[in-house]
Please model this.
Amino acid sequence: MFTSWKLGRIAGIDVFVHPTFLLLLLLPEVWSGGFVTLFLVASAFGCVLLHEFGHALMARRFGIETEDITLYPIGGVARLRRLPRAPGAELAIALAGPAVNFAIVGVLLLLGAMGLGVLLDDANLRVTAMFLDNLLLVNLGLGLFNLIPAFPMDGGRVLRALLSGFVSRSQATSIAAGLGRALALAFGIAALLVTHNMLHVALAAFIYLASRAEEWQVLEDEQRRRVSSTPPEGMWTAPPGYHWVRAGKDVWQLAPIVVTYQQRPHPRPSSWS
Model:
C-alpha cells in the first residue's frame, strides 16, 4: 500500500498527492511541449483541486466535513466523513465541483471578451494566450466529463439524487451504477480497439470498478439501516399487550400498549392462542 504525501492544509482540509501521480511524468505528451506543457498539466491539476474544494465547501454548508483531498493521476478524490442522504444536499454537493470548472471557463471567456488575447498578442505573449485558451478547454472538459452519469463521477451522483425522488436510494444507486458500468465498458472497448490509448482503458476500468464498489457500499449501508430500524422478530415477538420501543441504537425495550377510551377498537379475535 502506498502512503500519500501531504501537500498542506487548506480551509481546514488536508491535501495529499498519491505517489502514482508521478506516473504522469512518464507520459511523452507531458514533455513534448517543454515547460509550457508541464505548467499546463500542473495548472490543470490545480483546477482539479479547486473542483474538489467545491465539493468539500458545499458539503460543509450541509454540516458534512471532509476528511481529506487526494490527487491521483486520473483526478482527485474528496473523502467526506459521511455521504448526504437527502437528494437536495447530494445534488448541490455533486454539482458544486463542475460549477467551479464552469466558473473558471466563464472568467476566461470574460477576459477574452475584454480583449486580453489581443493585448497578449500585441505584447508578443502569444504563448501565454495559447496557455489560457488551453486552460479554458481543460476546465470545460473537466466540467462536462464529470457530469457523465456514471459513478464515481459527479454525474452519477446527480442522477442518483434525481432518481431518489421517484424510487428508493438503493434502486437509484443500482440504476446509476449500472449505467456507469455500461458506459465505462463501451468507453474501454473503444479506447482499446479504436484509439489504442491504454490510459483511457485504465480510466474505464477504474470507473467500472468504482461504480460497482459504490453500489455495494450503498446497498450494504441501506441493509444495515433497515435492520437497525426494524424491531426484533421471531423469538423476540412481543407478548400480547406489549410492543417493542426503540431506546437507542440497536437497543429495544418492551413497553405496554396504552389504548385510550376514544381509541379503543371493537373487540376482535386475538392472533394469539
